[in-house]
Amino acid sequence: MITKYNSSLRIHSSCHLIILFTLALILSACSSISNKQKPFSASRHTIPFPGYEQLTEEEQILADSIIGHALDHEALYSLLGDLKPMSSIGFALSYPLGKDSLQFDGQRFVVNLQDDSTQLNLNKVNSWNRVLDALSFENYQFLLIPFKKVWDGNRNMQILICRTDLLDKLLETQAPFFAQWGFVPGYDPAVILTAIEFEQKNDRYRAYGYLFGYPDHAVDFFVDASIHNQKTDEFVKRSFFNIPVFANEKGYFTYALPEDFIPIKKDSMLLKEASVVLKQYQSIRPAYVNKKGKLEAIRLFRDWWKRSKRH
Question: Cβ distance 258 to 221 under 8 Å?
Fold first, then answer.
């Protein structure tokens, strides 16, 4: 009887060890998969634009020009401020990769990959993505998103800076709107932006309004005006509220309001907060303009990052 009991105990112990060993292997595999999904090591997160030094000299020049253009325009309020969850960075990118008038929806062979010019254009897109990936870090994600519209066979694309921390807050604040796509904090911004770009017009307008940091009343007006225009074919007259950027006082961080509308407290507060960020940038910028008159934007942002409490 004792022998049978001991034998049973040994079998039970062996099974227990096999189960523990199997679980250990599974956990080890999961850990390995998890680590592979993380593009940057922890040390890279402490330095803005962590992949910059790995770029070619030509790509570094491009990267510096992207950040310089962003700082001089409305993306300043995404980079040095917390006013805009997302900003466009005004590089006009257009490539003959879209369908022309002779091609049709659902066509299998749209782009001729044997054509040298096609390969050149795809290489350019790949280069842009490589640079944007090198610039991305922590809550600052740089993305290349195609526009839905195709013009004469040309596919236009937009470069965007997305502050994922501000995006997460926005998805909570405006959950009654964004939850229709299942968007919740932590969602990949590239997925959100692509989905929004290919949405119906007025949902697209509202989403972009929120993402670009416009106040609720401005977003409501723009969407309502669009709906009115669709129903009546009448254009709703409007005025514009301009928030200055370094490059110009008008035309960049700008949103529409009803004609003869008197700005309210939210508009004034946004202008005041933006003015603080702009003045700070104006005060530090001259020290980063080299002898050739070129802004060393990467160095400027990295130094600003060190002085700030963001890391």
Answer: yes
269 touches 243 (CB < 8 A): no
For the stretch 9-68, pLDDT in tens is 343 444 443 333 333 433 343 333 333 333 333 344 568 999 999 999 999 999 999 999
Size of the chain in residues:
311
The structure's pTM equals: 0.83
- Bridging pattern class, strands 154-163 and 140-151: antiparallel
pLDDT at 309 (0 to 100): 65
* Distance, CA of 148 to CA of 276 (rounded, Å): 36
Task: Please choose, from the candidates 194, 97, 114, the residue with its C-alpha nearest in 3D space to the C-alpha of residue 152.
Answer: 97
Q: Are residues 167 and 90 in contact, defined by beta-carbon separation less than 8 angstroms? A: no
- φ and ψ at 90, to 5 degrees? -70, 60
Question: Residues 63, 52: contact at Cβ < 8 Å?
Answer: yes
pLDDT above 60 (res 139): yes
Per-residue pLDDT for 311 more than 90?
no
Distance CA 247, CA 92 (A): 17
* Tens of pLDDT, residues 263-298: 999 999 999 999 999 999 999 999 999 999 999 999
